[in-house]
Amino acid sequence: MTDSGIMYFAGSNQTCKVTLALVNGRLKIEPEGETPARFESIQDLDVEPPVPSLPCEITLQDGSKIEVARDSLTAMSLYRKDTGNRLLAWLESNKWACLIATILLPISFYWLTNSVIPTAAMGVAEMIPSSVSRNIDEQVMDIFEGEIIEPSQLDSEHQLKIQDGWNRVLTSLPVDKQQFELLIKKSEFYGANAFALPGGTVVVTDDLANLFKEHPDALNAILLHEIGHVVERHSLRMMTESVGTSLMITYFFGDLEGMAELFSGTALTLMQNKYSRDLEREADQFAIDHLRTIGADPEAFATAMKTLQESMGDENIESLFKYLSTHPEFEERIKHASQ
Questions:
Q1: Would the pTM count as exceeding 0.85?
Q2: Model pLDDT, residue 17
């Protein structure tokens, strides 16, 4: 039994009508006219998954394509020989299967983004060499310098006291002291803040240093918190997780750029905000656990949180909302540090 189709020749706009038949494991292709028939092994054919209302597309070894009705004997026979195509054809023709797949997709997505990818990211982050982390630090600081951070305007005596506290903190910890570097910078963008880069660079702003000028142990608590981010490789974990999630979204949604970009942007923002808060809690605990090792009261961390909370009054409400978007609430952190 034969079927009719249209053949599109590779590398040209030439087409012709063909008659198709399956003969002893090969596809017989017989063009109209006097052109002799050709045979193609079924194993060498690339059969596109069936799409409702569209013809079946068969790609030959030389790149030529043949279109034949999707419900033709040739198409159905080729589909049956390909498990993947057969499964996809069944899914597309079965409404209940489509409904179940629609329900399972977001469940699978949630499970992957909240369990599988974060777990995998932890392992990958541990394998990233320190030289790569330091290179990231250098590139980030090159971008930040002159744009959102400037040389410190603190007097040398104040900076020296901060460096002495930093050295005392590092000496008390079981870490590679050569990995870490403290930078004191002025930043109107960050205000009273501190941040750590993955390679061990910790930046403290002038505003934060002035805020804790009379509370050196509270500032040391903040420094311990930032060191905790580096030790636990939080930045690398978030970077790895972000890449993994982006790749997964691309896999699920393919080239549906508009929907994929909208969905990925929303999903990544929600997921990373939650993930950031979890990592902040880990860094908080690191600071609390190690305050005693430098001879300070763990209550110093609570003091640091209270001071930060008081500094972010109504006049700085925008900064407060930005801070809370990726950090646990102050009251939660103060309560935890005071236990």
A1: no
A2: 92
